Amino acid sequence: MLTAPILALLAMAVAGWPEPAMARRRLSGLFRSPIPETGAPGDGPVGSPVPATTWELLAACLRAGLTVSAAVHAVLPGLSGGTAHRLRNVAQALAVGVEPEIAWSCARDCAELEPVAATAVRSSRSGAALASALDELADETRSRLRQEADRRAARVTVLLTFPVGLCFLPAFFCLGVLPTLGGMLGRFFELAG
Prior knowledge:
Blueprint lengths: L2 H13 L4 H9 L23 H12 L4 H8 L5 H15 L4 H4 L10 H13 L3 H63 L1
Helix pairs in contact: 3-4, 3-8, 4-5, 7-8
């Protein structure tokens, strides 16, 4: 009983239909990261989004009494690529006593780290609490990511309209319109004949 569907799936797999690479190429445009990839070569994707929990963890470390360099070192295991590399450079510079403006300058050219760098420099100048500013940054990051997800979801619904219509229109015609026309034409020929 299950032999026919299994043979059909096996035949499709052998024939390469649908081609997975082509489907991946079509779908890859839907899920591209809006963040440009810039940074040190060989460090992996710098544009990978930094999770809001990273900024919350950094704020919690600062509230617990860690120095900024120690707090940055504490959040590094959750990051990867060029973002982690830049934050590691900032933490090392701060640990040896480099001025915050100079230490955070290497992070200013990364879109994900620029707000943190600006906030940290502003905090070092004014003495304002960096932890509360990082919590606000985490909230902004979450709302930005939520808006981006909503925008992508709206785009997917628009992109799916044509394929769904292409599938359902023939079915509607075959199951809805043709039987109605057949019934009407049958009655017409009965009355005419």
